[in-house]
Every structure is written in C-alpha cells, then in structure tokens.
Amino acid sequence: MFNPSREQARQFFFDTWHKYRQREMLSAMEDMALGIILLHPEYQRILDDPERYHDKDYLPEMGDTNPFLHMGMHIAIKEQLSIDQPAGIRQRYERLLKKTGDEHVVMHQIMECLAEMIWQAQRHQSALDATVYFECLDRQEN
C-alpha cells in the first residue's frame, strides 16, 4: 500500500474483513491488517457495513476517530518496525514494550508520536522530522 487513495485504503480493510469472515486466504499484508482489526472490535461493525461507512467523513473537531486512519497508522508503524526506519524506532519500541509489557499500548504511544510528527510537518509545511518523532517517544519512556 505505497500511496493508496482514501477509497483504496478503506476498501482494503473492508475486503480483508470480508475475506476473513468468508474464511478465504489472506495475503501477508491482509494478515497484518486482520491482526489490527481483531485488536479493535469496535471497528468490526463498521467493516461489516461498507455501504454505510465507505464514504463517511470523520471529523476530529466533532470528537470523531477515523477508524481507517487509525488502522492505517498501525500498519505504518508495523512496517517502520520491520525495517527499523527511521533508524532507531525498533530500539525505542523495545524499550517502551519492556516498560509497559503491552504491545497494543506501545503501538498507541508510538501512534501519538507519529501523529505529532505529521502534524508538525503540516503545520510548518516541512518534511517529516524524525527528531520530533523520537523526542516524543523519549518523553513516553519517562
């Protein structure tokens, strides 16, 4: 999923959930997504109703959490960890995991920092800055 459109990203999650429910074979990426879906039972009813949720807008100013963005960030973090990119992310993950003992909690801590880095880049109209990412992760450790 190198640069999917909003529609493609959402369809990927709908298709993965449908294939799982139909007991069809999943690709490696779908298997990764399924693991994330299973960690989030609150999103499964959304994935059961693609007609209703395929085009739904989620507005943070209204208190909405976008389940597709959330699951997509899980995938992005898993991919970062698999290749240790940015360099040092895996080491920080391991330290947080040792501290909390809960992989899902750590993923959400990392997600907060990833979101902060993206927000800073958008705010300053700059490139993504791993320093911002790592400073946030280092604060999570303390």
How would the blueprint of this fold be written?
Blueprint (H helix, E strand, L loop, with lengths): L5 H16 L6 H12 L1 H7 L2 H4 L13 H17 L5 H12 L2 H22 L5 H12 L1
Protein described:
The protein has helices spanning 6-21, 28-39, 41-47, 50-53, 67-83, 89-100, 103-124, 130-141. 20% of the residues are buried. It has two domains: 1-65, no CATH class; 84-142, no CATH class. It is globular and about 45 Å long. The mean pLDDT is 94. The chain has eight helices and no strands. With 142 residues, the chain is mainly alpha-helical.
Short structural summary:
By secondary structure, this protein is mainly α. Helices cover 72% and strands 0% of the residues. 20% of the residues are buried.
Keywords, please?
142 residues, mainly alpha, 2 domains
Overall geometry: globular
Total number of strands: 0
Euclidean distance between termini CA atoms: 34 Å
What's the helix-strand series? Answer: HHHHHHHH
Number of helices: 8
The largest pleated sheet is described as: none
Number of domain units: 2
The low-pLDDT segments are none
**Structural category:** mainly alpha
Work out the strand percent. Answer: under 5%
Would you tell me the overall average pLDDT? 94
Task: Please give the share of residues in helix.
Answer: over 70%
CA-based gyration radius: 16 Å
